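@here heads up, posting the sequence + SMILES for the flavin-adenine dinucleotide run so it's all in one place. Ping me if the SMILES looks off, I pulled it from an old spreadsheet.
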Amino acid sequence: MKVVVLVKQTFATEARIELDESGEIISSRVKKVVNPYDEFAVEEAIQLVERKQAEKAAVLSLGNTETQEGLRQCLAMGVDEAVLIDESGMGGADSSITAELLAAALKKIGFDLILSGYVAVDDNAAQVPMRVAEILGIPHVNVVSRLEVQENSVKAWREADGRTEVLATQLPCLVTADKSLNKPRYPTLPNIMKAKKKPLATYTPADLGVDLKSPGCRVVRHFLPAGRAGAHLFDGTPSEAAAALVSALRNEAKVV
Amino acid sequence: MAEKIIVLAEVQNGALRKNTPQLVDVARRLKSNAESRIILVLAGPKIESVATEAAGLPVDQVVRLEHDQAWQGTSEEILETLHAARQELEGDILVLGNTSLGKEIGPCLAQRWGWGMISDVIRLEDHQGKPTFIRPCYAGKVFDEIEMLQPQFVLTVRSNAFPPAENDGRQAEILERVIALPKDALKTSLVEVVERPTGKVELTEADVIVSGGMGVKGPEGFEFLKPLAEVLGAAIGSSRAAVLAGFIHPSHQVGQTGKTVSPSLYIACGISGAIQHKAGMSTSKCIVAINKDPDAPIFEFADYGIVGDLFEVVPHLTEEFRKILQS
Ligand SMILES: Cc1cc2nc3c(=O)[nH]c(=O)nc-3n(C[C@H](O)[C@H](O)[C@H](O)COP(=O)(O)OP(=O)(O)OC[C@H]3O[C@@H](n4cnc5c(N)ncnc54)[C@H](O)[C@@H]3O)c2cc1C
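bot reply: prediction finished. Complex C-alpha cells:
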C-alpha cells in the first residue's frame, strides 16, 4: 500500500504579518514551516510504514523552490520520497486549481491512501483536500483524530461538532488530520543527513497536462484588522474590580 | 437576475442549530432584488418542531430532504442528498455554516458543480457596487476582501459573525421531498457515535465563553471556573497548554490548532495570550482578561482586564454577574 501525504509550506504560526505599500503580504522575511496540521498527516504515514501496514510513504506539495525545504523536513521525519509541483510563474493558484494539480500528480504517482491536514493555517480555507477527493472520485473522512487502517478499508474517529463519529470506508480514500491524531516527531540529525539522498521529483503544471482555468474569485485587498486599544484595567480589591468590570460589560460594552 | 439562495440548516440534538437564523441573515443581505428567493433546506428524517421553527424564519420556502435509503446521519448522506436534489433546487448560491458539516460538504459541492467557494466569511461589504466577502487568513492576522467572479458559489459563514434574522410573523410553506440516491452513492458507514460531554453550549456557537489556561493550575481549576460559566450560560474554552497538560479535553481548545470562536464575550482566565491562542478568538466582540501578570500579552488585545489572581477574582465576578442577571 502506498500512502501519499499532501503538504503545504506556510508561514510559521508566530510570524508577524505585514503588508507592503501595494497592500501585498510581505513573505520574504517570514520563517516558513510545514503546515502544522500536515505534520500530523506526515507522522501518521510514517507510522503506517513502520508498522508495515504500508510499503511506502510519499509527500506531495504545490509550491516553489522554497518548498523543497519543507519537503526535506518531511523526508528527514521519515517519508520515503517527495514530489513538488513547481508553481513558480503561475501567479498563484486558488483552491480549485491547486486541487486539480494535486489530483493530476496523484494519478501520476499512484496512491492507496491520501492523508493531509484538514486545513492550512495560512489561508484557512480548508477546501483543497475535499476537492482532491472529489476530483479523484474517492471517499473521504474529514478532521480525523484517530485512524485504523485495515487491508482494504479504514476506520476513522472524527471530531464532528459536539460528537465523535467513528466512520468506516473503503480504500482508496482520503483522510484529513486533526491535531489530536498523533504527536509529530522531530527529525534527528542522522535522518536529516539521510534525507538529502532521498528522491525529490519536480513537475511543472505542463508536465501534468492540467488545463489551468482562471481563478473563480479575486482578492480585492488584504487589510490588517483594526488593533484594539489595549485593555481598560480595573484596580482595587478583587471585589471592587469585579464590580466595576461587570458594570462596564453591562453599560459600556453592552454584552451582558 | 433574481437569484435563488439555498441555506442549509443543520439539526443538532433534535433542534434547529443556533447559527441557522444567522445564515438566513446572510442570505437576506445577498438578495440582489425583490424577486430573489431564499430556500431553507433541512436534510434528514422528519422532526416536526424543527420544520415549524425553520418555517418561522424570514425565508420563502422550507424544503425538507430525505433520501430513499436507511438514514445513518453522516455528512456524506447530506452531501449526496443535496447533490441529487441539485436540479430540483436550482440554486445559485449555497449558504452553509463554517461548521464540521459545512467545511466538509462545501468544497465537495463547489468542486462537483463547478461553483466558486469562499470559506469562513465574517462580513459582507461592497466594492464598486458588487458584493464582496471578508474572511480572516493567517489566523486572523490579515483579513481578505474577496470578490466572487463566478455567478454561482458556496459560502461558509463563521458562527456568531452575523446577527440572527428575526422571524417575520409569517410561516413559510414546507415542502417534503424524498430523493432517490444512486445505489453506490454512499461509501461511508457510521460505525459508532460518541456524544461528547462538552456541556450544553457548543463552543463555536456560544455567545459567552469562559476560558482557562495554565493559570488555572489543574483540572480542578476548570471546575473552579464552572460557576462563572453557569451564571453566564457560557461554554468552557481553554488554551492549548492546558489541554497538553491534561487539564481538559482537546475539544475545548481555542486557537490556531483548536476551535475558532467569535462570541459576544470571551473571558480569558490565566491565559497569557500567545499569538496562536489569539488566532482563535480575536474576532470576539468583547475580550476580558484576568491574569496576575500585568505584562501578559493578552492585555494588549483585551478590551477589559483585571490584574490579579484568578482564584480571588473569579468568585467575585460570578457574584456580580449573578446580581445583575438574576435581578
Ligand atoms: C504550531 C502551534 C500551534 C499552537 N496552537 C495553539 C492553539 O490553538 N491554542 C492555544 O491556546 N495555544 C496554541 N499554541 C501554544 C501557544 O503558543 C501557547 O503556548 C499557549 O497558548 C499558552 O497557554 P497559556 O496561556 O494557558 O499558558 P501560559 O503561556 O503558561 O500562560 C499562563 C498565564 O497564566 C497566568 N497565571 C498564572 N497563575 C495565575 C493566577 N493564579 N491568576 C491569574 N493568572 C495566572 C500567567 O501570568 C500566564 O500569563 C500553539 C503553539 C504552536 C507552536
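MO: Chain B has a mean pLDDT of 94.
MO: One more: Chain B has ten helices and 18 strands.
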